[in-house]
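Repro:
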Amino acid sequence: MTVIEVAVTRQPELWWALAGLALTAMLFRLIRPSERRALRVTWLLVALVVVALAGVARFQSYPMFATTVMGLAVVLWGLAAIHLLSTIIFRGVLPALGVNAPRIALDLTVLILAVAWGILWLRLGGWIPRSCLPRRP
């Protein structure tokens, strides 16, 4: 059983994880109302995950389509979680501790973690990162 097939069987858990992510974003919005703009990407990703999960539920009779959309939903959920946690750390926790990190630190952190998340999912899908390196003669 592949990772995507496991994810399809655990679709209700992803709904709960998505609800937890949305609740965390709302709490951060209540605590730091000035960071509304920083959460727009998170809300967009949450909306895309909802659409993808609705597509999975709607097209259960087409297993290949459903598993592909479920994989997309999991990847988007991971990106939303990465963005939200990075925003909370760089725009909430660090300023509360008196550390003023430049805004590019948030962007670079999100970028690096998103690339790592993508490589992880490619690896779980069977891609071998070493295959991109040139072969020795």
